């Protein structure tokens, strides 16, 4: 389920209310969207949330790569082989 309750603040809050912005991203794990002159300008995330997004993106990219490879090759793996390969990939990604 996607959180539709976004925290939107003016970019000036980085200077004037940095501690509050920082507390918000750390306590909620959600981004704070910053605006400049009424338009979206940037997003602030905690390091933990950012790393989680990067990890999810890498896993998604690997799955897409696997789907493309499956379309172009006749090679198939058993569920046991696939699970072992995923565990190896996840362990390697977690060390990065």
From TrEMBL:
<dbReference type="Pfam" id="PF02604">
    <property type="entry name" value="PhdYeFM_antitox"/>
</dbReference>
<dbReference type="InterPro" id="IPR006442">
    <property type="entry name" value="Antitoxin_Phd/YefM"/>
</dbReference>
<comment type="similarity">
    <text>Belongs to the phD/YefM antitoxin family.</text>
</comment>
<dbReference type="InterPro" id="IPR036165">
    <property type="entry name" value="YefM-like_sf"/>
</dbReference>
<protein>
    <recommendedName>
        <fullName>Antitoxin</fullName>
    </recommendedName>
</protein>
<comment type="function">
    <text>Antitoxin component of a type II toxin-antitoxin (TA) system.</text>
</comment>
